[in-house]
Specification:
Shape: globular
Helix content: 10-25%
Low-confidence stretches: 1-19
Number of helices: 2
Number of domains: 1
Order of helices and strands: EEEEEEEEEHEEEEEH
Number of strands: 14
Distance between the termini: 27 Å
Mean pLDDT: 77
Radius of gyration: 15 Å
């Protein structure tokens, strides 16, 4: 399993690390982060849907991340989609899972509430701690050292 950050910004211009998936001949997406099986990765694009796509909401991408990208990623067959929203007073993490071709909400964790999942790997994250910054704690489970 690989975790890739797919976007690198240089002088405000998005630059791909080399991984994207094609929705149509003239339309493709580059999620902020993907988790995939190594066998399904062949630069410059994914050869099969990743296990997970993660988008981090910005002011300019709010509608796209919650609606357009969710629909497109479900159509592509990505089993899990997380939306991380740092713009709210308390950070939010939304987990969606593919069910019959559409996403259903599995969990919606806000602030100090734990975001816990088993797919595609076991993890517990406290959204507010995720957004704590470079000087903040890095134990994202909230359990302490």
């Amino acid at each position: 399993m690989r975790i890739l950050q797919l976007r690198d910004r240089t002088e405000g211009v998005p630059r791909s690390a080399g991984s994207w998936y094609r929705l149509q001949r003239t339309h493709h997406r580059i999620p902020d982060v993907v988790v995939l099986e190594t066998k399904n990765f062949s630069k410059p694009r994914l050869t099969a849907p990743p296990l997970l796509a993660i988008e981090v909401v910005s002011e300019s991408s709010f509608f796209r991340d919650y609606n357009t990208k969710a629909r497109e990623q479900a159509d592509f067959g990505i089993p899990a989609y997380w939306v991380v929203n740092p713009l709210l007073e308390a950070a939010r993490m939304l987990e969606l899972r593919l069910d019959g071709g559409d996403y259903r909400v599995v969990q919606d964790a806000v602030g100090e509430n734990a975001f816990t999942t088993e797919f595609p790997f076991q993890v517990t994250i406290i959204p507010d701690l995720l957004m704590a910054g470079a000087d903040g704690p890095w134990d994202l489970s909230g359990e302490g050292a």
